[in-house]
Amino acid sequence: MEPFERYRPIIDDFEAFLEACRRPLGTAVRVNTIKASVDRTIAVLEETGVAYEQADWNPRVLTLETDSPGSTWTSFHGFTYGQEEVSAVPAGVLDPQPGERVWDACGAPGGKTTQIAALMDDQGTVVANDNNLGRLSALRFNAERLGATSLAVTNQDARNFSMKPFDFDSFDRALVDAPCSCEGTIRKNPDALEDWSEDHLHSVAGIQKGILRRAIQTTREGGTVVYSTCTFAPEENEAVVQHALETESCEVVDFDLALEHSSGLESWDDEEFDSSLENAARIYPHQNDTGGFFVAKLEVTA
């Protein structure tokens, strides 16, 4: 937990934060409404004897009293998908609508991609991209199991993503759930900090900046881009969004989030950020008994 000491000045109730990081994470799933409604899924869970608790902030998110969510009847039939509770936030903030064109820049293994498809009632086009060909097999498997038919899968470096394969030149919305240092996954991955270093933070931030810039460039004017990570590092969060504000035509906008969270930072060490970054959300493990996440919503401008 030593690397987390750098966050003591920015996290309220820091000791509660550390205590939460040491606790194992509960088992959460997302109801896949392409296959079944929330009510039908809950009825099946009750019939098969799987206890559950429904999240207050999102009726499609359930915490199950089982160590094997993938072995349940609902999972086998594609009614549920194992997805950490806070991981369901970015797609909800993106708010994709049926019939739209949406890019998931870092789509594998498909949790958020299939969530986007479900929010769109599987109507429209969801382009799921990943630069790792091996991980795309998992994405394809999950899309088939969950019945998501609106997907097109691409294998490109998102920083240089080409629109040439498509008969349109821009997306309505884009999600950049960027590869990161994964500090916020410490509760389910106790080894998350083993290779931690500030050099690594700056290295991965360079990749994140490139992906976010390309997402803005490929999204139409007035469209929405959501940037998210499962880490606490400002170098990978506010600093990346700040870079986008300085290099692309976009602005950070506010959004509603029923989960308890903290505002984005307006400064870190000697670096100052645009005041609009206060509209971003930092979700810490002790606030909702979840993992950690950062989410910022941007609108593409002229």
Structural write-up:
With 302 residues, the chain is an alpha/beta fold. The longest helix is centred in the last third of the chain and has 20 residues. Helix 7 crosses helix 8. A hairpin with a 2-residue loop joins strand 12 and strand 13. It contains nine helices and 15 strands. Strands 5, 6, 7, 8, 9, 10, 11, 14 and 15 form a nine-stranded mixed beta sheet that branches. The chain has a four-stranded antiparallel beta sheet with strand order 2-3-1-4.
Strand-residue fraction? 15-25%
Distance between the termini: 44 Å
Radius of gyration: 19 Å
Largest sheet: 9 strands, mixed
Count of DSSP-assigned helices:
9
- Outline, from the CA principal axes? globular
Amount of helix: 25-40%
Structural class of the secondary elements? alpha/beta
Average pLDDT number: 97
Point out poorly predicted stretches: none
Order of helices and strands: HEHEEHEHEHEHEEHEHEEEEEHE
Number of strands: 15
What attributes characterize this protein structure?
single chain; 302 residues; alpha/beta; 9-stranded mixed β-sheet; 4-stranded antiparallel β-sheet; 15 strands; 28% helix; 22% strand
Q: What does this entry show, briefly?
A:
With 302 residues, the chain is an alpha/beta fold. It has helices at 14-22, 38-47, 73-76, 89-94, 111-119, 133-146, 198-217, 238-247, 285-288; strands spanning 27-31, 52-54, 61-64, 80-82, 101-104, 125-129, 151-154, 171-177, 219-229, 250-253, 262-263, 267-268, 271-272, 281-283, 293-300.
